[in-house]
Amino acid sequence: MPNIPHGLKMAPSHALRCCKRALNWIPVLFINLVVGWSYYAYVVELCVFSYLVIFHIFLTMFIWSYWKTIWSKPAGPSKFALPRAEKELYEREERAETQQEILKKVARNLPVYTRTAGRAIRYCDNCQVIKPDRCHHCSTCEMVNNCVGFSNYKYFVLFLAYASLYCVVICATVIQYFIKFWTKQLPDTHAKFHILFLFFVAALFFISILSLLGYHLWLVGKNRTTIEAFRAPVFANGPDKNGFSLGFSRNVAEVFGDQAKYWFFPVFSSLGDGHSFVTRLVHIDPEQANSVLQQNGKRQVFLFGVFFLFFFYLLTFSFVY
Q: Where is the Palmitoyltransferase DHHC domain (predicted)?
């Protein structure tokens, strides 16, 4: 049997990886095409000048937060990598118990408090690092073709919120023309078909996004990740689903930051470094405590509530209009 050159063996797998990377962009491209068409249908075909200001405000915030979610690179926990000597020992060792002893020795100098279900140190064989608390080797979110994590979670929540508001604005301002379409009061032009589909697409997107937005707002209020919602984090003294919950105002600030003026903009304001997290079970040095959060907790809850009251006001307006 003839020998196949190594380069030819690698070529098919490389081509498959390239195809997979290209296919991963299809959902993102689809969403961008729908948004582009909605802009054409609303601004060019419908052309309701009195609504264009608020339409463009929400469109801008939607696109801004969406692209920040897509292009924010996931953080890499390089300082949690095993030192060279320990890494060589770990790779040579075949006994799991001895490997755990090596990991425990290294983890003593790291801010790591969570464990596996068997109380072992969490270690990623792919990245060859000790897993920081709340970190996982995860896959990408299809809607954004990116991993949603510490570096872009705030952007992702804002993307869902502004996408919902964008759909609400469209439904609220188009519904009167949608009704005229069914009562045959619109001029018989091709624009009326854009109006028909614009309302349907906006309503369908809103319904599909609203449940996801509500779920992630609940996660923010509880200070949980998606994985922690399904499987409680395990600490040295056992699993605790509320291990990272610090109270509602502190939980909100962990994601959105301690300065309310940045909450509604897709700029990074989350607290921490993405590697170490405050828990309710571990004593934290006073320098790590955020006095601003303690002083302004009630104000943050109020402002957070105002934003989502405004959201539901627009929602109600869309159906009453």
A: 122-230
